[in-house]
Amino acid sequence: MQNKRQMKFKRNATNTAMNNVENNSEEDFLDQFKLNKDLVKNSVKEALGAEFYKPNKKEASQLDPSTSIDLVVLFKKLTDDNGNFAGEEIYVVKDEIQHELINDIRIIRCHAGRTEHGKDFIYIQKLPGINGYTNLWTETQEIAVDVIKQPGNWARIWADSAEKQYKFQEVKLNKRPQTFRELGPDLKAAIGNNIIDSLDHPLLVELGITVQKSHTSTVDEVFANLDDDDEPFHGDIADELVA
Asked: pLDDT per residue over 182-241, tens digit each?
């Protein structure tokens, strides 16, 4: 049984709630609904697949030892409001125009990964340049990736800007063997519409890339520095990812 004081409090609370609803405009109500809808969209997006992500030295990660996919790409550098470097956006380059962009394209190796907290992600490894050029960044990242891709290995990997190299630290974690997401579908979703399929693509203009029409190099040059077992971004793989 409710006493009179409780019943009075309940009536006041109900009246206050009704007044708030009546006083809210239609726009306020729709704005609240839009926020909820956006939250649902974000949740669905997270469930659809992994995204490009760089682990840091505060969390250990694993990379799927069973698979990787190599892509030919261009990088668009991103900056913050102060003009400082804020990351890179990846654009894949279709095979029929790779030879025209031989001086600008890069080859990356994509790995499926998972953090110790269960976050699935796609990790990008930059391979040596088309002409074989390498530096401390690519060399140290290759060493770190080789360690983290060993079955059962957990390690923290991070970029040391001061020393211009990657560093890693192996970690012993008592965890069950991890099951990784399928890399191909996640990679296709992460790439989205970032596909350069013609020499008229706006990004080429934005990056100031001038195409040399007289260039006679073949596409095979792009992959000259890859091992025989490493399939680059061409043929059936390309068609599947950008279809």
From this structure: 999 999 999 999 999 999 999 999 999 987 654 444 445 544 544 444 444 433 444 444
CA 84 to chain CA centroid, nearest Å: 20
* pLDDT tens digits along 220-237: 554 454 444 444 443 344
**C-alpha pair distances (Å), 129 with each of 43, 64, 72, 123, 168:** 38, 24, 11, 18, 23
Angle CA(235)–CA(241)–CA(243) in degrees, nearest 5? 90
Any residues with CB less than 8 A from the CB of 17 and at least 6 apart, and which?
A: none
Length of the chain: 243
The answer, as to whether pTM is greater than 0.90, is no
Burial of 217 (0-12, 13-18, 19+ CB in 10 A): middle
Inter-residue contact 108 to 125 (CB < 8 Å): yes
